[in-house]
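Next comes the chain:
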Amino acid sequence: MVEWRNRRRSGNIEDRRGQRFSRGGGGLALLPLIFRIFGFRGLVFVVLIVGGVWLFGGDLQPVLNLLTGGGGQTVASQGEVPPGQEEEAEFSAVILADTEDVWNQVFLEQGMDYPEPALVLFSDAVPSGCGFASAAVGPFYCPPDRKIFIDLTFFDELSGQLGASGDFAPAYVIAHEVGHHVQNVTGVLDRANAMKQRLSQTEANTVQVRVELQADCYAGVWAARADRMKGILEQGDIQEGLRAAAAVGDDTLQRRAQGRVTPDSFTHGSAEQRQRWFMAGYDSGAMDSCDTFAAERL
C-alpha cells in the first residue's frame, strides 16, 4: 500500500465533480444553407474545403463548427458531487504533489523550471481545450490546457473490471498522465504530432505507441525517485503497478473487447511493453532511460 496519508496535497487541483455541462446554441449552421442553394454541388464543394484543410494540417474543428453550427458556448450547472469519493480525491492530490516534487527536482538538475500541471476531477463529462470528453475515454492529458482530467470512477473500473487492484494502480495512472505533461513541456508531443501527419495510419500508431511507452517509463522514474525522497512504496506496490500496466495494454483490452488482437491498431503498447518500459524508468530513475523514439525494440 502506498504511504500517502497525512502528507502534502497539491494545490493544483480543480474539482469540477458534480458539474453538468451542456453545449449552448452555436449560431448559424452553413451546411443546410449551402445544400439548399447549391444542392449536391455545394456538398462537393464542402468536401473539397474540409479535405484541403485536413491535407495541409489545419485545424478542422473551427470549420466543422461553422458548417454544423457547433462550437457554441458550454453551459455549466452544479449538480450533486458523487458520494464516497473523498478518499480518492485526497489520494489523487497527494500523488500529484509527489509528482511535483519529483519533476521539479529532475528539471532543476537539468537547469530548467518545471511548470506544474493541474489535475481536474470531473463527473461524467467535461469540456477541455482538447474537446468535450466523456468519462468513457478514461483519464487523459490535454496539452493546450496543460491539465490532466480524471473521473474518479475510473479507479473503481481499474480495480473491478480490469483487475488492477491496490492503490499503486491509480498512482501509476496519474503518474503516466503527468508523464505526458513532461513530454509536452519538453517538446516531445509536438514533434510526435508533426511526425504522425506525414505517415500512414499504421505508422502513426507506432509513433503514438512510442509516446505512450515513454509516459509509462516516466511513471517508473517518478516511482523510483518518490520512493527515494519519501519512502512511499511498500512491498507489493511495484507488482500492483505492473498489473495495472498489463491491464491497460492494447492486447489485453482488445482481447477483452473483441476476442482477438490486431497489433497494427495498437496506440499504447502491449501489456509486456508497458510493463517493461515502466520498469526501465523505475530501475534507472533517469529520464535518459526513457528514449523510446531511439529504441530499436519497443
About this structure: The mean pLDDT is 83. Residues 201-230 form the longest helix (30 residues). The radius of gyration is 21 Å.
